[in-house]
Amino acid sequence: MTTRETSVTASDSIGRAASNPSAPPVNGAAAVSGEKQVHYVPSGSGKTYRSPIDEVTFLMTGEQTGGAFFMAAVSVVPGGGNPPHIHHREEECFYLQEGTLTIQVGGKTQTALAGDFIRLPRGVAHSFENTGKVDAKVLLVVAPAGLEKFFEEAFFSVEDRSEAMPPMNGEFMARVLEAAPKCGLEFLPPASQ
Predict the structure, then answer these.
(1) What is the rounded CA–CA span in Å between residue 179 and residue 152?
(2) Pairwise CA distance, residues 158 & 69, whole Å
(3) What 3 state SS string does the chain have?
(4) Is the CB of residue 85 less than 8 Å from the CB of residue 179?
(5) 15's torsion region: left (phi>0), alpha (psi -120 to 50) or beta?
(6) What is the predicted pLDDT for the residue at 160?
(7) Which pTM does this prediction carry?
(8) pLDDT digits 0-9 by tens, 70-103
(9) Of 43, 44, 150, 158, which is most buried by a Cβ count within 10 Å?
């Protein structure tokens, strides 16, 4: 039996063996495609999708990060929010840049203001609502990537940003309910009053 040693250096902190840079990552690290390339998204140029309650502009997708993460700029209208749901595949992180979001997570209520950060673990029911008077601006990071596929399928692609938000109707809800299970999302029934 022959034993082969592989050395890992400090510079391999993303999890690649020094002896084989093309080897798959180790220690659970995800490879990022184009690791040495700069990714620049000028303001207002990312692919954008809308629902009746929010607008999601893609900054980095799983295709660009080797599946490691998805990042988007999200704008939620006052009074907008989503029903309780569970992400079975990914964790979500919100960095609130402007406005107010009231977040229900794990049976607790958090009111997030500009500058606040919250991490929502996978497998925990949560919802949010913009309880402020201005659009809530959120930097969303989801790991691992994949949630962008839900937005692509359920939301409406935006070509003209001056157009009104789409209506909350049966067509939109059918899109959401069809896309959710494909993306590991589970929408929970409303709490009984």
Answers:
(1) 9
(2) 23
(3) CCCCCCCCCHHHCCCCCCCCCCCCCCCCCCCCCCCCCCCCCCCCCCCEEECCCEEEEEEECHHHHCCCCEEEEEEECCCCEEEEEEECCCEEEEEEEECEEEEEECCEEEEEECCCEEEECCCCCEEEECCCCCCEEEEEEEECCCHHHHHHHHCEECCCCCCCCCCCCHHHHHHHHHHHHHCCEEECCCCCC
(4) no
(5) left
(6) 83
(7) 0.79
(8) 999 999 999 999 999 999 999 999 999 999 999 9
(9) 150
Q: What angle do CA 149, 166, 54 make, to 5 degrees?
A: 60
Please state whether beta strands 91-98 and 136-143 pair in parallel, antiparallel, or not at all (unpaired): antiparallel
Correct CATH for 48-158+165-184 of 1.20.20.10, 2.60.120.10, 3.10.150.10, 3.40.50.2000 = 2.60.120.10
Contacts of 159 (CB under 8 A, 6+ apart): none
Q: Where are the domains of the chain?
A: 48-158+165-184
How many Å is the maximal CA-CA distance in the chain? Answer: 69
How far is the C-alpha of 129 from the C-alpha of 8, rounded, in Å? 46
